[in-house]
Design brief:
By secondary structure, the protein is an alpha/beta fold. It has helices at about 20, 25-40, 55-60, 80-90, 130-140; strands at about 1-5, 45-50, 70-75, 95-100, 120-125. A five-stranded parallel sheet has the order 2-1-3-4-5, with helices on both faces. It starts with a strand and ends with a helix. The chain binds ligand CA2.
Length: about 140
């Protein structure tokens, strides 16, 4: 099984500011968690982070026929990007949405998730551990 983990804008800044919202763990802690999870679960994980909406759309399109599942945290594009929603729908690869913070208890503008409309599950408010949970969920329930 091969899973693509996609992260949107500013996720590479994790741990640098706003620890009260996003926790103290850094982006490199997240990368280490992904490597550990891949080794423990005997699966292949490819991760990619971009600050650019179109680049994320390109990556989703390129995943077609290559990846069995997608874990996606579109970050701020969660709440704005119909392009990312359409790309997820177009490739029709089982996808799980992850948010580090508990988006539901935050500002009104964070209450809509377009990407989430194309995902089989959403995990939020569990810090970077949410990515591990998403990978395990894809492994268990979302076989392509
Ligand atoms: O909770 C999440 O994972 C989010 O997707 C994170 C996004 C935010 O726009 C979403 O509403 C929820 C923000 C990404 C990280 O932004 C940072 C801001 C300050 C310091 C470090 C990272």
């Amino acid at each position: 099984m091969i899973i693509l983990v996609l992260n949107g804008p500013n996720i590479n800044m994790l741990g640098i500011r706003e620890p009260g919202v996003y926790g103290t763990e850094s982006f490199s802690d997240l990368l280490a968690l992904l490597e550990r999870t891949a080794a423990e679960e005997g699966i292949e994980i490819v991760q990619f982070q971009s600050n650019h909406e179109g680049v994320l759309v390109d990556k989703i399109q390129e995943a077609f026929g290559v990846f069995d599942g997608i874990v996606i945290n579109p970050a701020a594009y969660t709440h704005t990007s119909i392009a990312i929603l359409d790309a997820l729908k177009a490739v029709n690869i089982p996808a799980v949405e992850v948010h580090i913070s508990d988006v539901k208890s935050r500002e009104a503008f964070r209450q809509v998730s377009y990407a989430g409309m194309a995902c089989c599950k959403t995990i939020m408010g569990k810090g970077i551990e949410g990515y591990r949970e998403a990978i395990l969920y894809l492994k268990e329930y979302c076989h392509a």
